[in-house]
């Protein structure tokens, strides 16, 4: 075995001796730092321009593998909604499992609130046939359900720090779904008024480099 082959073998052994989470983190960083086309960059910026945290919105969208296939705002919206639904189901299952394991009665009540909240939250992301402010209001309902969960945890003295990272992650996915719907609905109004899609407007592409 020559020196190059030995070096490659050693590198592989070192890499796979790292904790799984470290390798996953490296993968996530690679995904988020991957270059994207100017068109996709414009789409993501249009979706995130109203977000409370623009950079978090962008990075959350870029972390979704399917987002690279998006060619218009509707694609971004649909992908974001699908991921939000998946994440909501995961949260429901997480709290259901936690409820089953919990032995403190007061905590079980709190966790039951979250199970119900995320069950109801999933339905808020199903907006087929719903448009305009009605669509936005329906999606916003998911956030209201998540707040019910948090309130239930606090009211029953559950250590919210145990679940806060998961809740924050869910909020990020909710955010890109909400902003995706907002962008599509705003585009409809923009097109009706100006005769062009918002993402194609000269003003929209400013500051995207």
TrEMBL record:
GO-annotated molecular function: enzyme inhibitor activity
Gene3D superfamilies cross-referenced by the UniProt entry: Invertase/pectin methylesterase inhibitor family protein (1.20.140.40)
N-terminal signal peptide: 1-22
Pectinesterase inhibitor domain location: 39-183
Keyword set includes Signal: yes
SUPFAM superfamilies named in the record: Plant invertase/pectin methylesterase inhibitor
Entry keyword Transcription: no
SMART domains: PMEI
UniProt keywords, alphabetically: Signal
Pfam hit, one: PMEI
Name this polypeptide is given: Pectinesterase inhibitor domain-containing protein
Source organism of the structure: Erythroxylum novogranatense
Biological classification of the source: Eukaryota, Viridiplantae, Streptophyta, Embryophyta, Tracheophyta
